[in-house]
Target: Exodeoxyribonuclease III
Amino acid sequence: MRIATFNINGVNTRLANLLDWLKAEAPDIACLQELKATARQFPEVAIREAGYDAVWEGEHRWNGVAILSRVGAPVVTRRSLPGDPADRQSRYLEAAVQGVLVGCLYLPNGNPRPGPKFDYKLAWMERLIAHAAGLVTVDAPVVLCGDYNVVPTEADIYDSRSWKANALLQPESRAGFARLLDQGWTDALRERFPEQPPWTFWQYLREAWARDAGLRIDHLLLNPRAAARLKDAGVDAAVRGRERASDHAPAWIELADTDPA
DNA sequence: ATGTCCGCACATTGCGGA
Model:
């Protein structure tokens, strides 16, 4: 089973890119972030015609997350992250598909820093850590994937000099991600490429794609039951080079159908 | 500080968010 995560940066703006990728790579499950569409604007019909059932959580202009599946309709288990009923931003969606629990998340960017946006990012991370503590021990495969907006280590960015003040690299952001891993989650791309993990994001500015000036901020975290099934992981980087591409590329894992004996 | 991209609104440019 292949599970992918893709910050689409506008599901309607990039619909042709999305459909091309779904057709070419045919992930069994695809988590999308930054839909930038209300629930009504979500392109349900085009996605169904591409062979996918979908569940989604929309929002006007910003954020928005979806889970697509071509191996059975996702059964929603959560539509928001617990811990703050006043938080109306659509950044978390969780569903069961084919015996796998999938959490699709869009962690706040947090810029500019310092300020309320960075505070919100850290508060959101705390809520994620609290919720993930309950998921890591689930006696079934759990995959927490999405745009974490965190560059975990210096190996996860082309050159950090011009990013020093950015919320994606701050010690607090990295500490939060490390605390998640300490719960027992496996960072799949890091596991697959321990020396040099691939980038998942190239900003639009300064010809970052052409220079391969990338960052790794999209992550697939696996609980022990999912990690035991990990066969492969990668990034569909070529997607970033297409016309009118998202600034992110899809990242994916391949899980064995059953636990190893 | 800058750069790029996009959709929306006090709309035919400016702005926020990334």
